[in-house]
Design goal:
mainly alpha; Sodium/glucose cotransporter; globular; ion transport; Sodium:Solute_Symporter_SSF; Na+/proline symporter; membrane; transmembrane helix
Length: about 475
């Protein structure tokens, strides 16, 4: 009941705050925030939007199986954000784009444009559903399931709450609400760490020393080239995952494009990009501390790493205060990523596919339809999930974001034309070929591709575009 009351109180505060900061709105407000967002608010809010509820739940539990090797990928994130800030943002600002996929229309052609936008819709809808599944799962398992409430009702209810406070102001509302939610999330994380160290009877310096000396604090994996945790695989995957899931993702770029100037947008991206390493270090350190606490109290570690933090925080083992803090942290992280995803999906459909950016009635209908589809996918993911949620997201993005990476790479790195009518077929064939290659490799050698599948998928897409290019037609050069 404590969790349910916290959810209701948090949402009431969020709805009141969103109405306070957003009054008169139109499509320009919904899609671009009138390009008046202060860069420091965007930067701070993007920390919560980029982390999501997945990080809050999954990352502490990752130490049970892979130690702190996830930090290798976080180091790659920093390099990826630099590429986006100084490579892609100048292009987007120079062309004054509402959606970043309009660049594909100018450089490659209309079918490439629609294909890129379609793959974004598929990728973002799937990835956001996986992320938001976490908060729905926790609320259902620990609160509503004992009351006999079906999971579908939980999922629909949570999505409806997001739809309610984003339906008017869109991206302008999110710039402000994400700032509030990031503050709530980081505060909850810090206070939970303080509670856990107190349970271990350690001071903060003692807790830091204990984490550093623990066997699970291993960060770098240099020797095993086959392992998914190999340093170079993780580092390069982090770079390319960031380029694709931020620089080629309308959801992540939409807020950056609301800044007043290019310089402001670059400052905000560099700031929140650098914040990823220390924030994820805190989450991983929390995981090590929870393992110590479980050992001290004689509690068996859960089979799934995603359940490590909920095992202590959602069940009242650390007291009611931690349960409330945990709920607020998960809600803040999950809502700040899901609300921006819903807004970006609506924007891309109206602008890229429907080509009706000024139709407010269409925007409202699409926004509601996207919310319904979002809820259905969450229910579907519950039926098939069998792996770590964070791992599932990166595997899914390898297949669905790979064609986007190939399209943008081909357009940016070459001056060659493209056979525009063949682009949809190539972008469908490339993930299927990658899936077949992964299956064949696993069957013959036992090796399974990890996050590097994204790079392979993008490279294959770009190669097929090059091989099928028309030799006579001139390229579109911007």
């Amino acid at each position: 009941m404590v969790i349910l009351l916290t959810v209701l109180a948090y949402f009431a505060a969020l709805l009141a705050y969103s109405r306070l900061v957003t009054r008169r709105t139109d499509n320009d407000t919904f899609f671009r925030g009138n390009r008046q967002s202060p860069w420091y608010l965007v930067a701070f809010g993007m920390v919560g939007a980029s982390i999501s509820g997945i990080t809050f739940v999954s990352v502490p539990g990752m130490v049970t199986q892979t130690d702190m090797t996830y930090l290798q990928m976080c180091l790659g994130f920093v390099g990826g954000y630099a590429v986006v800030a100084f490579g892609l943002l100048p292009l987007y600002y120079r062309l004054r784009l509402t959606t970043i996929y309009a660049w594909l229309d100018r450089r490659l052609g209309p079918r490439s444009y629609r294909t890129g936008a379609s793959f974004f819709l598929l990728s973002k809808m799937t990835g956001a559903a996986v992320r938001f599944y976490v908060v729905c799962f926790i609320l259902h398992r620990y609160v509503l399931q004992p009351l006999g409430v079906p999971f579908a009702v939980t999922a629909v209810g949570m999505v409806a709450l997001i739809w309610l406070y984003t339906r008017r102001g869109g991206i302008r509302t999110l710039v402000w609400t994400d700032t509030l939610q990031t503050l709530c999330m980081l505060t909850a994380l810090a206070l939970i760490i303080l509670h856990v160290t107190a349970e271990l009877h350690l001071s903060l310096p003692q807790a830091a020393a204990a984490v550093a000396s623990d066997s699970h604090s291993r960060v770098f994996e240099w020797s095993n080239w086959v392992s998914r945790q190999n340093f170079w695989k993780q580092l390069l995957s982090g770079v390319f995952v960031t380029i694709v899931m931020t620089g080629l993702d309308q959801d992540m770029m939409q807020k950056n494009l609301t800044c007043k100037t290019l310089r402001d947008a670059q400052k905000d991206m560099c700031c929140y990009g650098l914040a990823f390493v220390p924030v994820n270090l805190l989450f991983l350190s929390l995981g090590v501390l929870l393992m110590m606490l479980a050992h001290r109290q004689g509690i068996a570690l859960p089979a799934a790493g995603d359940e490590l933090l909920p095992l202590f925080a959602a069940t009242g083992r650390l007291g009611t205060a931690v349960t409330v803090l945990f709920t607020i942290g998960v809600l803040a992280a999950a809502f700040s990523s899901a609300d921006s995803a819903l807004t970006a999906l609506t924007t891309s459909f109206c602008v890229d596919l429907a080509r009706r950016p000024d139709d407010e009635r269409l925007r409202r209908r699409v926004h509601a339809t996207m919310a319904v589809a979002f809820a259905l996918l969450i229910c579907g993911f519950r039926a098939v999930n069998s792996t770590s949620v964070l791992d599932a997201i990166y595997i899914l993005c390898s297949y669905t974001y790979g064609p986007l990476l190939g399209l943008f790479a081909y357009g940016l790195l070459t001056r060659q034309p493209v056979a525009d009518r063949r682009v949809p077929w190539i972008c469908v064939a490339s993930p299927l070929l990658c899936l077949a290659l992964d299956t064949l490799t696993a069957a013959t050698t036992g090796y399974r591709f990890g996050y590097e599948l994204l790079m392979l998928n993008g490279a294959l897409t770009a190669t097929l575009l090059y091989l099928s290019r028309p030799t006579a037609a001139p390229a579109r050069v911007l």
